[in-house]
Input
Amino acid sequence: MLMADETPTAVITVSELNRRVRASIERAMPLFWVAGEVSNLTRAASGHVYFTLKDATAQVRCVMFRSKAQIVPWLLANGQQVEANALASLYEARGDFQLNVESLRRAGLGRLYEAFLQLRDKLAGEGLFDENRKRELPRYPRRIAIVTSPRAAALRDVIAAFARRAPGIELIVYPALVQGLDAPAAIVDAIATANARAECDLMLVVRGGGSLEDLWAFNDESVARAIAASAIPTICGVGHEPDTTIADYVADRRAATPTAAAELASAGWFSATDEVAALGAALRDAMQQGLRDLIQHTDLLARQLVHPAQRMQTLRDRLGHLASRLSAVARHDLQTRNARLQTLRLRHTRSQPDTSQQRQQVETMRSRLARAAAALIAGNEARLVRLQAGLSALNPQATLERGFAIVRDNDGAVIRDAAQLNPTEGIALQFAQGSASAVVTATRS
Output
């Protein structure tokens, strides 16, 4: 382990020695798997795990740092047989040889995992995992097949999830073993039965969590091919995160847990509840807004609608105002002319002229003024009479006085067209004096 420029008698420090030994060990032995029994297990406050891995004749110290120890899928304990994926190294501070463990698995699972990888690669090569062969799930399934054990907790979880999210969906359980040597055949038979009966539009294949051996039935090739060949779209919810099986890869959708599978299957109905509620709220708001608009429009029309009596009173008031203005103008004109006459008289008196001719002119003007005033007043009075006559003609009572009658239907609406009436329909007649009820016997256009 001497450097190229060092002599055999060169002296190095212990720290340098341990550093070189560690580097040499790590270069010579990259990551590898080693099997043994766990003993002297210690968990540090920092989260790091220290233990010894031993067999019948030897042992080695191991350390598993917190980031790696947190992902071990079971509780590590003394006496367990494990397989460690580790890096051989040297703890320089004490010169202790140790293994830095990257991951752990239970002893014997290595063969199962290798079988898992081989089948996964085989089926992937055949295209059974391709996304383009997987089907869309029905958004609103009405009947769902559940392939699982009737005694499994997973079934209770699935039923509870559907009861909470979409109680209207009909569930049909196709019982099957989900663990053991006979489980693959039972699962395949249940899937075949569900397809043969063709009574469901979605199928769930579910099982609770467990070890790799517990879930091995769902890594069986026959189960994978049965799911791939199923005419019913399938959701696979086997185990719990991070469990993954071949059935998960080949199913149309994978769910992390049985409950998640039920939630995925009921997602359409569950969201529809919120959508219907939102649509109902939007419809209610639209109806309320429409009602408010109609009320405002009705108020506007009501303000524009004037009763005939009110209109006649308005015309009377306007006529009186015009008459007052006419009288005021006439009076003002007379006053102006009288003032001018008085001014002329005063000027005449002061000048003492021969006023006979002017007096005659004055008399003539007075006569003309009188005639003009009389004519103006007579014209205004005639106009007033015409306006009063027109106003009287607008009075419905005057029309009734001439022998006419107002016809109304049972709702009080005025009938203007015989086509509005039907034989045997009741009508009301209003006369100038009193009213009467009648029944229509026939109508003529």
Summary: The chain is about 50% helix and 20% strand. The longest strand covers residues 32-43.
